[in-house]
Design a protein that fits this description.
Strand content: 15-25%
Distance between the termini: 26 Å
Order of helices and strands: EHEHHEHEHEHEHEHEEH
CATH architecture: 3-Layer(aba) Sandwich
Structural class: alpha/beta
Shape: globular
CATH superfamily: NAD(P)-binding Rossmann-like Domain
CATH topology: Rossmann fold
Oligomer: single chain
Helix content: 25-40%
Bound molecules: nicotinamide-adenine-dinucleotide
Strand order of the largest sheet: 3-2-1-4-5-6
Number of domains: 1
Number of helices: 9
Number of strands: 9
Amino acid sequence: MNIAVVGIGYVGLVSGTCFAESGNEVICVDIDRERIEALQNGHVPIYEPGLEELVRRNLKERRLSFTTELEAAVGQSMVSFIAVGTPMSADGAADLTGVLAAATGVARAATGYHIIAIKSTVPVGTNDRVRELIAQSSRHRIDVCSVPEFLKEGSAIEDFMRPDRVVIGSTSEQATAILREIHSPFLRTDNPVLVMDPRSNLASTQRSPCPSLRDQFAQPDG
Ligand SMILES: NC(=O)c1ccc[n+]([C@@H]2O[C@H](COP(=O)([O-])OP(=O)(O)OC[C@H]3O[C@@H](n4cnc5c(N)ncnc54)[C@H](O)[C@@H]3O)[C@@H](O)[C@H]2O)c1
């Protein structure tokens, strides 16, 4: 599958690289030109065990590329994962400027049905906000979903490649099926995909969740 990842910090770089390692064609987009140029040359700006080797292998095998050109990346993809930073603003709330800008850019650049999958950590209500914001930005159908990231720095590759569970916030069957397919190589048979509605009430799971999971993932997206 052709995938764009927007925001190539810790989460975006690990996610994009692992998606490429599992056989997808991944274009990674960031507004930081220096960062992108370094990555194009196989220089990884963060230290994470095993990451540089994976980046270099997937670059060489042409499943992974890096660009500052959002439009071209999205135009060639069906799914865009948004992994831009959400720093705390003065009032303590997550600053969604980057997420909203990236989502609008993706919607404008989509050339057909497209999924915006938000990986950034965002408050409840963000998916609705994004949906409203982009409503007039594209003549194509755009599904807005949430796939929150739980990786830890230091074991990020392992966490991404062997997650305990994958949480998908979605109301679209088509988007859910595509996101499941993208994550299927990372899931061992007994690990669940938890599908929830956009405001994250537990809607369905591949197997029955225990109550603590319901509590833990009560609000994965907005
Ligand atoms: N780092 C972690 O361990 C971790 C774990 C889980 C979730 N998260 C969440 O994931 C999100 C990303 O975290 P991170 O640590 O990777 O952030 P980061 O600060 O390392 O990277 C964010 C990247 O986004 C880029 N960016 C900002 N605005 C952009 C735009 N409009 N278009 C394209 N690129 C843009 C920046 O240049 C930067 O390279 C945050 O919401 C964070 O809370 C982080």
